[in-house]
Structure formats: C-alpha cells, structure tokens
Amino acid sequence: MTERLHDPDYRGFASDNYAGIHPEVLAAIAAANEGHQVAYGEDVYTERLGEVIRAEFGPEAEVFPVFNGTGANVVSLKAILPPWGAVIGTANAHIHTDEGGAPERMAGVKIYPVPVPHGKLTPELIATEAWGWGDEHRAQPLAVSITQSTELGTVYTPDEVRAVADYAHENGMAVHMDGARLWNAAAALGVPFREFTSDAGVDILSLGGTKNGILGAEAIVLIDPEAGQGLKYLRKLSMQLSSKMRFASAQLLALFEADVAGESLGIRSAQHANTMATLLRSQLDEGVADGSIRGLGFSQPTQANAVFAELGPAVADRVREQVRFYDWNRELNQVRWMTAWDTTEADVAHFVDVIRAELAR
Ligand SMILES: Cc1ncc(COP(=O)(O)O)c(C=O)c1O
C-alpha cells in the first residue's frame, strides 16, 4: 500500500483544482477498468460519450476528449482559425493570461485582448477589435472567444451569449467558448447546456471536467461541424490524443450520470460549489453590513464558484498563512477565493473566522 503523504484535512480556497476526485468519478474509473478496450478512442466509453454529447449539444456535435483545458482551447482555436486569423477575447481570458503563450506558439494564433469590467464580452466591446478585414497588415479577426463561467466568476446569460454570437457571425467570426467551468455556469443558470451553447450560437466549446471533480480530462465539442477543420488530426499533432481514452471518457461520462432525482453528478457538484461561494460571500457581506467586519470589499458579483474580494495585502498575507488562496491583482488589493465540489460549510465558517480575526487585528 502506498503511504499517504498529505494531510486530508488540509483545505484551501485557492483553486477548484486543489480538490480531489469525486468518489463517483473514482468508481466510474474503476468500472471502466479491467479487460481490454481498443485504444485511442475506439472504445465503448468514448462511443457512449459521443451519444451523450449529441443529446446535450445537438445531433451534429462531435466530441474530442483531451488531457487539459489549455489543450482544449489551443486545439479548438487552431481548428477554427487559418494562419492569418486572430481571436478576440477578454484581457482576463485564460487563453491570454494563463496559458504560457500556448495559443500563440502552439496554435500560431494572434489574440486581441479587450479590457472588460466583469469578465464578459459584448458586441460593443468586440467591435473595438473587430475591424481591418481585407487588410493584410492586420491579423484577421475571425473568431471570438468567451469564457463561461468567466475568469471573474460571472456568468453569461443565454441572451448575452446569443448577442455575442450573432454579432460574431454577422461579421464572419466563429465563436469559441472556454467552458472550463461550464458546469458551474449551467448550475447557476438552471438551464440545459444547449440553451447557452448550441442554441445560442456557440460553434466550438472547451468542455471542462477537471475543476468539477474528475481526475483529469476535458473535451472539445465541435457544435457546428462547418466551423472547425481537422480536429481529428490536430488533437494528435498537439499531443492531446490519449491512448487509454476510455478512462478520460468514463470520467466525463460520470459527470452526466443522473441520480434518482434526475440530477447529473456534474450539476450537483457544481451547484454545491456555487452554493459554498454564495455562503462565503453572504456571511462576509453580513459582517460588512453590520460593521463587525471592516476593511473588506468585493470587486465582482458572486455568480458561480468564485468570490473576488478586496483587502489589504498585509491582511491577505496573514489570512493566507492559515488558509491558502491567490492574489488576483496585488496592486488593486484584489484576491480570488474559489470553492469546489468538496468545500464544506465548516470550511467556509473557519475561513470567515480567520478573515474576521485578521481584519480585526
Ligand atoms: C478559464 C479557464 N480555462 C481553462 C483552464 C484550463 O487550464 P488547464 O490547462 O490547467 O487544465 C482553466 C484552469 O485554470 C481556466 O480557469
């Protein structure tokens, strides 16, 4: 038996990736184990995933499991853009700030970053970079990328996605959605995926899973087969083709598995994470309102599983020594607190106590 090296009671609010694997996902991996299955995606789990994805996103949708979210984004962008193409995204977009330049280097894609207030693009904001078609001196804006839920913990409504997609399509641009936290958005909106993806005009989607309790897998969902080309080949040449794909697919399938009440594991887990973020935010809001907590503000609405707070760096560092989290923008005193499928009410209560105590010092 391998020795356990970590303290299972250690909890933090740094990232939904800090959480472990949901027991139902572990069970799904175990159920997919034993015996032989054809490698590289010709297995029964990947076949079933294809059926589930078509039921969720439309009969034309094709699914391509990959290892991680950066891979899903990079391969998606490469599939929808020619070498002269550019993608318009937000200045906070993961593709722009957190992928080590992979979209530029691995996909050869130019990104036009647009500063946005709450992590969301609108037609008006996209228009600031949507120009210069036909001018060979400017990388051609041929795609728009939005993130759902956003890097700032906000959620696009179906109408907001549709407005972005309509504008993009009217101007000859494809729509990519980075759905690393798509489950959190679906849980927050309380509507099926297709209402804010396929039916709202999204052409290609990076479907998350790792942040919602699986060991490690994401998927590219090509919703409009006309929008992207060569995904089958691009995934392999981008080193995102898993030989033992049955396990990636089994994990993703587990998220779609419904309980007796008809709710999928993915929605239950994401709903829980969202509820914990709302609880954290409301407990702190109460303290600010009644004057028992001073020196704390919030920079974003809490709509999914993130709380963006403002507190001085010295206090933030003292709190962080006890409960880990990341700065978002140290100059602006902004920090990010994330909740996960396994965050408990006791974790939230403890964190609130620590914040309260350090602010009072
Ligand atoms: C918005 C967003 N997109 C994509 C990713 C996927 O990143 P990774 O390549 O680490 O799986 C993340 C992870 O932090 C993310 O927050």
Describe this structure in words.
This protein has 361 residues and is an alpha/beta fold. The chain folds into 2 domains: 32-256, 3-Layer(aba) Sandwich (Aspartate Aminotransferase, domain 2), CATH 3.40.640.10; 265-360, Aspartate Aminotransferase, domain 1, CATH 3.90.1150.10. 40% of the residues lie in helices and 15% in strands. The chain is built from 14 helices and 11 strands. A 7-stranded mixed beta sheet has the order 1-7-6-5-4-2-3, with helices on both faces. A 4-stranded antiparallel beta sheet has the order 8-9-11-10. Helix 7 (158-170) links the parallel strand 4 and strand 5 (174-179). Helix 12 packs parallel to helix 14. The structure holds pyridoxal-5'-phosphate. Pyridoxal-5'-phosphate binds at residues 68-70, 94, 147, 151, 178, 180, 210.
Features:
single chain, 361 residues, alpha/beta, Aspartate Aminotransferase, domain 2, Aspartate Aminotransferase, domain 1, 2 domains, four-stranded antiparallel beta sheet, 14 helices, 40% helix, 15% strand, binds pyridoxal-5'-phosphate
